[in-house]
Amino acid sequence: MKPKTPTPHIGAQYGEIAETVIMAGDPLRAKFMAEYFLENPVQFNNVRNMLGFTGMRNGRRVSVMGHGMGMPSIGIYSYELFHFYDVKNIIRVGSAGSISHDLKLGDLVIAQGACTDSNYASQYEMPGTFAPIADYGLLRGAADACERFGYRYKVGNVLSSDIFYKENAHNDKWMNMGVLAVEMEAAALYMNAARCGGHALTICTISDHILTGEATTAEQRQTTFTQMMEVAFSL
Question: Which residue has the higher pLDDT, 168 or 39?
């Protein structure tokens, strides 16, 4: 057993989690992925109901797990996975709000980089501004998979925000810099991966359009959100 496992937030023993983990904010979405995509999934975590499972996918061992909402939450879980369970790849699948006129409801966004209004990077005491980016191999594989599957997608910058209900969102300023969509976790995930030499990628489905007020229905979310999962499991 590797020292420090189980961790305070993950009840798995060392070796029970695969080198690749696909994560979703909602632990019930992780449960859905385990049941829908994995063969013979075995639950490895239920601490705080943050469900995690390991199973087989096309002859390869893969884990799925929830990460909660926001950078503090994904920061904890991804840190423990990278540092204490020797996880090599974390792929986040989630929802995002579009601030681009080129994106429609249900489109996929592959987050090449993650701008942020968070103070998460201050812990590293960098002498300048660190730019959190995705792993290129995972990013290229995701774009190639979207092409094969025929899914609508864009690759580019997202905004990882600390605040959901903002007094002053300033979305126009982010949009003017070419940012595609707003979510809440990618920047922390990318920073944790950079710090420990891991690989990370965020793939989001546009669930609502901040500029137009459009939003997906429950039925649309059920039928289109599996596209980003199929891309993630193909990597």
Answer: 39
- Residue 12, amino acid: A
d(CA 78, CA 75): 5
Provide the greatest CA pair distance for the chain.
Answer: 52
Return the active site residues: 208
Assign 3-class secondary structure to the chain. CCCCCCCCCCCCCCCCCCCEEEEECCHHHHHHHHHHHCEEEEEEECHHHCCEEEEEECCEEEEEEECCCCHHHHHHHHHHHHHHCCCCEEEEEEEEEECCCCCCCCCEEEEEEEEECCCHHHHHCCCCCCCCECCHHHHHHHHHHHHHHCCCEEEEEEEECCCCCCCCCCHHHHHHCCCCEEECCHHHHHHHHHHHCCEEEEEEEEEEECCCCCECCHHHHHHHHHHHHHHHHCC
d(CA 23, CA 33): 9
Q: What is the pLDDT of residues 182-215, one digit of tens each?
A: 999 999 999 999 999 999 999 999 999 999 999 9
Q: How far apart are CA 30 and CA 14, in angstroms?
A: 20
User: Mean pLDDT in the chain?
Assistant: 95
**Burial zone of 74 (CB within 10 Å; 0-12 exposed, 13-18 middle, 19+ buried):** buried
